[in-house]
Amino acid sequence: MATDLNILSANLNEAFSGKVVSLVEYLGELTLVVNAADMLGVFTRLRDDADLRFEALVDVCGIDYSTYGSELCEDGKYLPDAPRVGARFAAVYHLLSVTHNIRLRVRVYADDDAMPVLNSVTGIWPSANWYEREAFDLFGIIFVGHPDLRRILTDYGFVGNPFRKDFPLSGTVEMRYDAAQQRVVYEPVTVEPREITPRTMREENYGRS
Amino acid sequence: MAEIKNYTMNFGPQHPAAHGVLRLVLELDGEVIERADPHIGLLHRATEKLAEHKTFLQSVPYMDRLDYVSMMLNEHAYVMAIEKLAGIEVPVRAQYIRVMFDEITRILNHLLWLGASALDCGAMSPMFYTFREREDLMDAYEAVSGARLHASYYRPGGVYRDLPDSMPQYQASKIHNAAAVKKMNESRQGSLLDFMEDFTNRFPGHIDEYETLLTDNRIWKQRTVGIGVVSPERALALGFTGPMLRGSGVVWDLRKKQPYEVYDRIDFDIPVGVEGDCYDRYLVRVEEMRQSNRIIRQCIDWLRKNPGPVMTNDLKFAPPNRESMKQNMEELIHHFKLFSEGFHVPAGEAYAAVEHSKGEFGIYMVSDGANKPYRMKIRSAGFPHLSGLDEMVRGHMIADVVAIIGTQDIVFGEIDR
């Protein structure tokens, strides 16, 4: 596997010279970072190049990096403890090549924090359709060129992006059946936010003598 | 001539053949489906968000509730992601136990699938037979973890405890007299391994029984042959994995191609289909049960001969045993820290995938060095399958939708997460 990763990283550096922002191997997994502007060209080549042949898109995962490394938590929301360096939102693509039996992770950061926009890869891998809808729903990342960018997991008429770090764990609304009105009504949430085990950071090798 | 218009129909969310809470909006031309739009999320519990607010150990039971018919396989991917990130060595005996329970879980899942999807197509009896065998396997779950379904038996670093030496026994009751109970307890006199060995002896015969009911059954074939055909290229592009991909003839199984735990030491075969229709996927799953049976037998043989630890001895991740915890200060501190603050996983990211009974089930874990994951993404197998439903059902009849939902082995716990 390790030699395969070396060959793959050499192939990637050759194929995308100048477009590779970073290429890191960690725990036997290769992570490629490319710019949002280059992503469609890179992904198409990743699928079609005979040395790469990533036929399957296994997963697309949205990430909100705003509180990375922070311990702060208030009202069920995680908060940043220092001004952030770099973009807030990213989409992480997990690719699989059945031909070469190898995996690759590609991370693309969305440049604008206030309105994260990325290109849709549904034209390259149809399986991206629902994954991008999910990232749109949960993180508010907009995928340009997606044929049907609707919410997917949350309720009809839901407001907000629940997996952002500044969205409280207990949510903002709760619903119940109102016997008088004979319908389901939405009300502001009454759950008290609480954190039983606080989030803590420790130095490396903490507790090891 | 009357004007013919397309009309839309709601299928579910309260429909027994929707396998849970699927709301499917079907656009119909007569009885032919023009477009299917699955609305999911009715079972969305935000497991990934909950995991961000729980320590690593506290999230293990949540994993059982994802795909609630293959509980231990979900746990397996989760603990593997943590082990990869933290660099925890798992004892070999624990790996064999995990492989054995993975396969028990796979049989559990396929038995439920077989009964339920046959029932969807009108065959009543397989359900009764498959649930008879599921009962034995759930007894194995209960013997080892105390729970029949949501086991939370796998832990980062190994498994919760070693296999028990005795099986729980049936008691005489109003329904069963002493003679009946004695007969029921016959296979439960020895250890869990004896019980499982007895099961593996019986089980191939039981599979033959199911096959007698279905494989050459004319009605079953009419409902499944040529229905929901997916070409190999299309299956890959749509992100299909597991039996859905192998049914289309792609030889892809993570247990063989990217072996984890001790699968590389075990002898088994990967069945693949030819046509890529519902019938081939049925045959693939039935053969998978036979292969799982083979794997379980090999695990039993190895586990009998090789006693040993089932949990890593690194006290930063594994709890100390009760006796030393009550006598030794350091162990007491370890125990306290482990169950209050939890352990810390080094910063980094890792993706761990297992060959789940439904396909590739992966956990993508991002840690920033805290005692809770920074972000955890669950790559469930059923999610891309259901997204491909629209393409699979176009041009088919309404009744075929039921057969195709059945063949996809949809479970909403993992799709909605």
From TrEMBL, chain A:
Is DNA damage included in the keywords of this UniProt record?
Answer: no
Q: Which PANTHER family match?
A: NADH DEHYDROGENASE [UBIQUINONE] IRON-SULFUR PROTEIN 3, MITOCHONDRIAL (PTHR10884:SF14), NADH DEHYDROGENASE UBIQUINONE IRON-SULFUR PROTEIN 3 (PTHR10884)
What keywords are annotated for this sequence in UniProt? Oxidoreductase, Transport
Gene (UniProt): nuoC1_1
EC number of this enzyme: 1.6.5.11
Task: Extract the signal peptide range.
Answer: none
Organism per entry: mine drainage metagenome
What the record says about family reads: Belongs to the complex I 30 kDa subunit family.
Positions of the NADH:ubiquinone oxidoreductase 30kDa subunit domain:
33-172
A GO MF annotation of the entry reads: NADH dehydrogenase (ubiquinone) activity
Identify one Pfam family in the record: Complex1_30kDa
**Matching InterPro entries:** NADH_DH_suC (IPR010218), NADH_quin_OxRdtase_su_C/D-like (IPR037232), NADH_UbQ_OxRdtase_30kDa_su (IPR001268), NADH_UbQ_OxRdtase_CS (IPR020396)
Protein's recorded name: NADH-quinone oxidoreductase subunit C 1
From TrEMBL, chain B:
* Class of enzymatic activity (EC top level): oxidoreductase
**InterPro entries for the chain:** NADH_Q_OxRdtase_suD, NADH_UbQ_OxRdtase_49kDa_CS, NDH1_su_D/H, NiFe-Hase_large
Similarity field: Belongs to the complex I 49 kDa subunit family.
Tell me where the transmembrane regions lie.
Answer: none
| Cited NCBIfam families | NuoD (TIGR01962), PRK06075.1 (NF004739)
The entry's keywords: NAD, Oxidoreductase, Translocase, Transport
> What region holds the NADH-quinone oxidoreductase subunit D domain?
120-417
The EC number of this protein is 1.6.5.11
Could you tell me which Gene3D superfamilies the record lists for this protein? Answer: Cytochrome-c3 Hydrogenase, chain B
| GO function term, MF aspect, one | NAD binding
Give the protein name, as stated in the record: NADH-quinone oxidoreductase subunit D
